Amino acid sequence: MNLKKIFLALICMGLLEVNAVQWCVVGAGPAGIVVVGLLLDLGIPKKDIVWVDPEFNVGRIGHYYQTVPGNTKTSLYIDFIQACKAFQECAPHAVQELYNYNLVKEYPLSIIVKPLQDITNCMRFKVTSHQTLLTGLEYSADTWHIELADGKEFDAQRVVLATGAHPRSLQYQECAEEIPLDYALNKDLLGQLVNPEDTVAVIGSAHSAVLVLKFLSELPVSRIINFYKKPFVYTQDMGGWLLYSSSGLKGIAAEWAKNVLEKNPPCNLARIYNSEKARKAWLPLCTKIIYAAGYERNPIPGCNPDMEYNTQTGFIAPGLFGIGIAFPEVIVDQAGNTEYKIGLNSFMQHALDMLPVWNRSRLQVIEMLYNFKRFEELFDIHVL
Ligand SMILES: Cc1cc2nc3c(=O)[nH]c(=O)nc-3n(C[C@H](O)[C@H](O)[C@H](O)COP(=O)(O)OP(=O)(O)OC[C@H]3O[C@@H](n4cnc5c(N)ncnc54)[C@H](O)[C@@H]3O)c2cc1C
Q1: For ligand 1, is residue 148 a contact (CB within 6 Å)?
Q2: Phi then psi for 80, rounded to 5 degrees?
Q3: Which residues of the chain have pLDDT under 50?
Q4: Cα(27) to centroid(ligand 1), Å
Q5: Which alpha helices (DSSP H) does the chain contain, by range?
Q6: What is the domain partition of the chain in residue ranges?
Q7: Domain 169-291 adopts which CATH fold?
Q8: DSSP letter at 118?
Q9: Which pLDDT tens digit goes with each residue over 80-130?
């Protein structure tokens, strides 16, 4: 049998295997919403998209962060919604409503959560949605076998994990009473969890840490001790590109860090380099601790928690892709800094670039390989 016949046989085998749905998207935070919207834009039949999430309420920003001051200017949210036709069909007034805000200012995240909730409610009923958890994921016979907490099982040709992340807790023994970051980022809730006698430790120096420090400085607490490892960095427009585009402080957090923390910090707030010695000396004085020390991927049943992915393409395994804060795109900027692209517009751009590639049928991939093989033979080159 010559090479072409082998490939044709493979193609036939691929075509015969039609029992599975084409796509399963796991997670309905911003990243999952983007993927489902763009799959609809690509013309994938609705019956061929299954969407799984236990809540369908815009992930972590919908659940916890609506009052959090955002770091995205309104105009970028408008670009975000306009990038997807399905979004505009589902929330036809969203863009008009965003025009009521100052386009070059940042607002609390609720201004984008509300349209994303409308979009979710509408798209959920365009595709097949299951309001439950993914509990099992197994690869066999060239498809992904999926198990859900409600007992349902099915096969999918491609699975997108948009399963998000949760705040990292460092569990320093010297101060046991932790206020979860998700609560601390809501100033009213934080106000109920601290009292005037408290000395509160805040670990970290990025966006969330600065917001928590700002909130605490406006609440009646005795002392605030910020343990930091890195100096503050600010996003800067370098004329055509942004320095520290994702990792830098922006919006209210940047303004407050620059003008208050760095120039004229509140007298009950101390900043200390986070070394073991400093922790031993200072943490026993703290009555409460807040870890704003980054996020870690939510566990995915059936998968290794440290599973690797291609940070440019989101590729995890054949037909298995990752996106969003759990599997962010990583770039190196013009100054050589590594940036994790976390944010709604980054997810949209990454999905616009990658979904057409992820969507290539087996037939196209096999043809591509076949042509590649011929190219290899013609030019006497060797490609692994
Ligand atoms: C303080 C703060 C401020 C921010 N401000 C901005 C901003 O101004 N602009 C901006 O663009 N971004 C901002 N971000 C970042 C951005 O909001 C997050 O990166 C984004 O919400 C992550 O989206 P996600 O969809 O990847 O994950 P998530 O929002 O975490 O969603 C993951 C979803 O997956 C579901 N899931 C998890 N496991 C399973 C399972 N086993 N089965 C089924 N479903 C599952 C969860 O229920 C959840 O709904 C901010 C983040 C923080 C923390």
Answers
A1: no
A2: -60, -50
A3: 4, 7-8, 11-12, 14-18, 369, 372, 375-376, 378-384
A4: 9
A5: 3-16, 30-41, 59-63, 74-82, 85-90, 94-98, 110-124, 181-184, 187-193, 207-217, 251-256, 276-282, 344-358, 362-379
A6: 19-166+295-371, 169-291
A7: Rossmann fold (3.40.50)
A8: H
A9: 999 999 999 999 999 999 999 999 999 999 999 999 999 999 999 999 999
Provide the terminal-to-terminal Cα distance of the chain, rounded to the nearest Å: 22
- What is the identity of the amino acid at 142? D
pTM of the model: 0.90
Tokens describing residue 133: 């958890």
300 Cα: distance to centroid of ligand 1 (angstroms): 15
CA 333 to each of CA 141, 271, 309, 337: distance values in angstroms, whole numbers, following the listed order: 40, 29, 20, 5
DSSP 267: T
Indicate the CATH number for domain 19-166+295-371.
3.50.50.60
CB 90 within 8 A of CB 118: yes
| Ligand 1 atom at minimum distance from 80 CA | 11
Residues in the chain, total: 384
